[in-house]
Amino acid sequence: MSSLLLKNSTALIALCLSFPALAQEPAEADAQSGIIVTATRAPTPLEQIPASITVLDKAAIDRAQDIGVTELLLRTPGISISRNGGYGTATSLRIRGAETDQTVVVIDGVKLNDPSSTGGGYNFANLLIGDAERIELLRGPQSTLWGSQAIGGVVNIVTAQPDAPLEGSFDIEGGSRDTVSARAALGGVSGPLSWRIGGQSFTTGGISAIAPAFGGGEADGYTNRNVVGRAELALSANASIDLRGYYSTGRVEIDGFSGDAPDYSHNREFVGYAGLNFALLGGRLRNRIAYNYTDTDRDSYSPELEQPLSFEAAGKNRRFEYQGIFELTDRISATFGAENERSRFKSRSPSGSLADPLPDFVTGNAEITSLYGQVTVRPLDGLTLNGGVRYDDHNRYGGRTLFSAGGIWELPSGTTLRASYGEGFKAPSLYQLFSEYGNVNLDPERAHGWEAGVQQAFFGQAVTIGATYFERTTTGQIIYNSCSTDSTDPLCVMPGTDTPRWGYYLNVARAEAHGIEADAAFKLGGLTLNGNYSWTVAEDRSAGAATEGNWLPRRPRHMANGSISYDFDFGLTLGSAVRWSGKSYDNAANTTRLDDYTLVDLRAEYALSDSLRLFARAENVFDESYMTAYRYGTLGRSIYAGIRGRF
């Protein structure tokens, strides 16, 4: 009884902090000045960005102690996730109720996506914090600058850059379920050369991917190894060469449809970047010419079958780009560029019998060429306006033109007003077009959305409150349509054959989302309070469909986060965080409900010196049982401890 009272009291405190909250950015961003954001594809002061953005710097990342990027972002407004088990299993992150493949993920300027995945998006399962120095979350349609997929928003991850002759960092921690994480990085600046390389190893015994209530019993483990590096060589005062790379390999054990199984999957990701930067006209015109390459390979195995290889897929992207930033005056600037992206994929699903030969790969490719431009004007002190346009020429769908506009006004009273409008265009993925479930007659998804918000600061930046209202409409949304064994639908047969299939993709859906994101922050001496609340209505608006008016799957309408921490003078920091998620539904028919839940975490950190800290945390302290995807397990109470060094 006492534990239940403590749990409910802690949750009530968090919600009290959250509901009156009205700020767009967390305290980590608001309490600082001079923050430069790169998620807009150009270095931009935070106070000049009309769209909703959350910036988490290295101090905030360290303070949270989270292992994965999804866990960190889940504490920010408008974010929900679903995961098919523990660490490493398929993870979907949704911004403002948009589909997970409508989110663009960027690492050091390189856009990540897997052309062989179902929606052509990015699986967040293997994205650990690693050597991230800053994470920026840009909400709302951002396709003008980032192109296809940026309907929900952009997650921009910036790794650390050295600024000393030699510097480094390390984190080592361990805890529940034989979990061990070790990360280290080293870099420096020597004359015209700056460089940094970092690596991480993570392993855990895990939990059963299938929840115990549905027959899951054995633990499904996960390992991940990744390395990231970057180097920049100054050729002159106005020119430099930039090289970046990222590689990750993961192995996760998974369960079958009927429960425990020895099945497992491998995932390998490689990202490469090479760029030439040069400035002209006395530095007023900054130019970047670059080549990006991403390569993702995925394999699944069922060791109990005669033919253990059950799935094999590979997706590759090659992108050439030019970007320019021209400072016309000290109040007018333009960002413009051109891109050419070529994607291809292959996949196959072999039979479990050695009597059946390996099937041929299904393959596909696409090419898109784009031009974009955005002008930013600061007509008055504190007022920033921008407008942009993008033209995409897809080799299958022809040309599309997108527009965006926005403004932000900082008043002397401490009030900030924001408003923005954006459009999105997402071509069908290669998997949706050419796989065994593909439909070559699919049309692109299109979206448009707007938002308006206000933020108020008191006593400098000691107190901030604010709120944002948003709306987004998506038409032609692509869904998977199942086929029955006796279906007469001609699309329920593999094209060009008499072979029936389980289903196919088609455009039928219209989705609408609207809501409010609010947060507040308070800081007094060593005491820091943060809270946010999100109300997100994401519904199926397909006229005449049986699901019209239903909630989109796995999207809670109500979510809230709250945290409190105190820094003692002798180097100790204690904190607690609470997350509450309202109910959602697992299926489009809204017949399978996922109940609401409350998670409470505790954190502690002690500074042994300026460069060395001990830390510990307890997650899901009250061992709450919950699901973000029906039948799949979630982590119970977990305890971790470690040491962190920065030198």
TrEMBL record:
It is found in: Cell outer membrane. A motif (TonB C-terminal box) lies at residues 630-647. Residues 1-23 form the signal peptide. Keywords: Cell outer membrane, Ion transport, Membrane, Receptor, Signal, TonB box, Transmembrane, Transmembrane beta strand, Transport. It is a multi-pass membrane protein. Residues 237-621 form the TonB-dependent receptor-like beta-barrel domain. This is TonB-dependent receptor. It comes from Sphingobium naphthae.
